[in-house]
Amino acid sequence: MHYAARMKLVKPSAIRELLKLGEDPSIISFGGGYPDPSLFPTDGLAESYRSTITEHGRTALQYSASSGLRRLREQVAARVANDGTACDPDQVLILQGAQQGLDLVGKMLIDSGDTVLTENPTFLGALVAFNPYQPRYHAIAMDGDGIDTDAVDAFFRGGGRAKFLYTVPDFQNPTGVTMSLARRQRLVELARTHDFIILEDSPYRDVRFQGPAIPTLLSLDTDGRVIHLGSFSKILAPGLRLGWAVAPQPVIDKLTLLKLAADTQCSTLNMLATSRFLDAHDIEAQIARIRDIYRGKRDLMLAMLRAHFPQSVEFTEPNGGLFTWLTFPAGFDTAQFMAEQAVPLAKVAYVPGATFFPTDGPCNHARFSFSTQSDEAIEAGVARLGALLRKTL
Amino acid sequence: MHYAARMKLVKPSAIRELLKLGEDPSIISFGGGYPDPSLFPTDGLAESYRSTITEHGRTALQYSASSGLRRLREQVAARVANDGTACDPDQVLILQGAQQGLDLVGKMLIDSGDTVLTENPTFLGALVAFNPYQPRYHAIAMDGDGIDTDAVDAFFRGGGRAKFLYTVPDFQNPTGVTMSLARRQRLVELARTHDFIILEDSPYRDVRFQGPAIPTLLSLDTDGRVIHLGSFSKILAPGLRLGWAVAPQPVIDKLTLLKLAADTQCSTLNMLATSRFLDAHDIEAQIARIRDIYRGKRDLMLAMLRAHFPQSVEFTEPNGGLFTWLTFPAGFDTAQFMAEQAVPLAKVAYVPGATFFPTDGPCNHARFSFSTQSDEAIEAGVARLGALLRKTL
User: Residues in domain Aminotransferase class I/classII large (chains A, B) (predicted)?
Assistant: First the structure.
């Protein structure tokens, strides 16, 4: 088999191997960023699928438009409008999860050798999606307010060129950090000054535990420079594989052509049943329930980390989302510790941080997810790991 | 927006615009290759979705493996084994329809400028999927026995190079032609001699009206050179968006990494409900029903073409699938005729043939689908078009 050159960049990812570790029922895994399945609205969805197939089977099981079901695009557009951006349904493309948006935007924009700007660290799935298009990465430092916009400016002023900047501004994966309003305003301004596109990936946006929502980059942009990705995975269920892109219509038209080429369309049935669920149920109540549960899990995990981990281990205190980001003392290797001690001795898994750095990164970080495990498992897992760490550090 | 160079090859396709024409309810469209929706097993699927969500909601709505649900891969492997090829479930990747296989195989194999061999004409969706990877096409002539294997041999003996050959051997889209056994054997032999891969796309394979099935290229290959694509779209329902690839495991592993990058996975719910449907129902009986109905529609369309079209218009007599391919007198422009006469005067649409030729092709062909329209519409549409043609030709 003579593979294309791009396949050199397509390799199994550490996180995927780790999810396999987590499948061992004796291991408590804080690795996967899975939603808590007890929060899935199973009764409502069961009824929605039943009635969709029974009443509209011939439509629901047939081919439909590549751009996605019109009613569902209207519902997404209404949510986007409610979140601060006037949005026509023709500016919405329904995707096979937001992940597909990463693939299609990469395909649309990246020529081999182009530089993509990312946060440092950044979402691994974005790197996995972009890699086949053979970009180079320039990773920009973050702090508690998100990406360092001065560093973005300096990159361009120093002669750097990049087609787009990829960011997860709300409760970032993996750090849990949220970009401040001032940084967002500055970033949108910089995009205009230096002529680049912002790819705003915000699957966790509705999973906010406290404080008011900060305007999306999409809503701050007046220049058509933001492509925004959202998802039903965290507020409804990931098994439906439904997300969306919002962008100026000419961009959506291009992405729709790529969607058609890639997989024709999303499942008509999933789109129709989801649309029906949204019409028949109060999704805001569902989101409020998710927020309450995850807020409680975050509080529990942070309390347990404070109580059981050595003080030399720092961690972020996210205002939403699924993750906290741990920083161990310099030189501590979280991957080695996990393989040699955490998994065999404490029966606990997480994601070592090095995997989230687009280029070489430090080995002393880890991503802990608090969304999937039960309260009991969070307590037991953090306590066991803390006891082990106190012996080691 | 500074698009990647590959976007020059990403354009709206004629067939997509035509499907829009067909949406006008006053037009009888033989354009779209849609299954007859009255054949969808709606009751069985409604029950399958209801029980899947009710009994296994937490699993069905959650993330699952990128390679696809294990049980569904077993079921596909069993069908492939039944069709002449020993197949392990690890040699199966579940796809978002066979279309996704075209995208992922293109991504895996095509470097910019590589030559892809195709039949002439060929499936438009394959060209649409391959185009973003910037191949060149070398299209090989066909006759009633399928692709001209001597011409394939001559291409390579003349110094041509190509990584893979794309074929739809069973009831080809658009021509309805089936590749003979002798040609299949020769093609597999040539693949070994000249070191190329065969991409066998066979979504219509089970929709055979008469005669025994001819062995798949996959089953004839002993050298790991065939990637086979199949689909539930024609035997169950396209709205589920489920298809599969079968290939040697190292190739499936690469495709699985690309699937993960492209959209994480297929809908867990759709995979689980489809698997359950296959366990609970007799899919062979469903396929027999589809064959009977489409055979009747083929017979009707061919009889109507014989009765109403001028003798100067020739057409194929497919042994299966959804399509017949019409050849009008040399110089007759089927696209112009459709726009200026067939649609406005006869209220009938089809797909002009030029769109199916990878490089320049003649304008005197058309693809007629007999699968979607009712018997009454087939009768009325062909009669109206025939009357118009008799005035013109």
Answer: 55-384
Q: Which CATH class is domain B43-280?
A: alpha beta
From CA B180, how far away is CA A196, in angstroms rounded?
Answer: 54
CB nearest A240 (choices: B5, B114, B269) = B269
Which chain B residues are Cβ-neighbours of A133 within 8 angstroms?
4
The answer on pLDDT for A21 being more than 70 is no
B261 → closest Cβ in A10, A111, A239:
A10
Supply angle C-alpha B77, B78, B83, rounded to 5. 95
B1–A251 C-beta distance less than 8 A? yes
Residue of B nearest to A48 (CA): B50
Residue A340's contacts (CB-CB under 8 Å, 6 or more residues apart) are: none
Task: Give the CATH number of domain A5-30+285-392; options: 3.30.110.170, 1.20.1260.10, 3.30.465.10, 3.90.1150.10.
Answer: 3.90.1150.10
What band does A99 get if pLDDT is binned at 50, 70 and 90? very high
Fold of A63-280: Aspartate Aminotransferase; domain 2 (3.40.640)
Inter-chain CB proximity A35 and B62 less than 8 Å: yes
pLDDT in tens, A283-309: 999 999 999 999 999 999 999 999 999
Q: What is the pLDDT of residues B292-333, one digit of tens each?
A: 999 999 999 999 999 999 999 999 999 999 999 999 999 999
Nearest chain B residue to A102 by CA distance is: B262
- Between the CA of residue A381 and those of A17, A244, A296, B144, what are the distances in Å? 20, 35, 16, 67
Residue type, A303: A
Residues β-bridged to residue A92: A246
CB of B9 within 8 Å of a chain A CB? The answer is no
Of A3, A46, A97, the CB nearest to B263: A97
Answer for the pair B221, B228: CB distance below 8 angstroms, yes or no: no
User: Domain residues of chain A, as ranges?
Assistant: 5-30+285-392, 63-280
Angle between helices B283-308 and B375-392 (to 10 degrees): 30
Nearest-Cα distance to chain B for A329, in Å, is 33
pLDDT tens digits for range B197-247:
999 999 999 999 999 999 999 999 999 999 999 999 999 999 999 999 999
Top-tier CATH class for B5-41+285-392: alpha beta
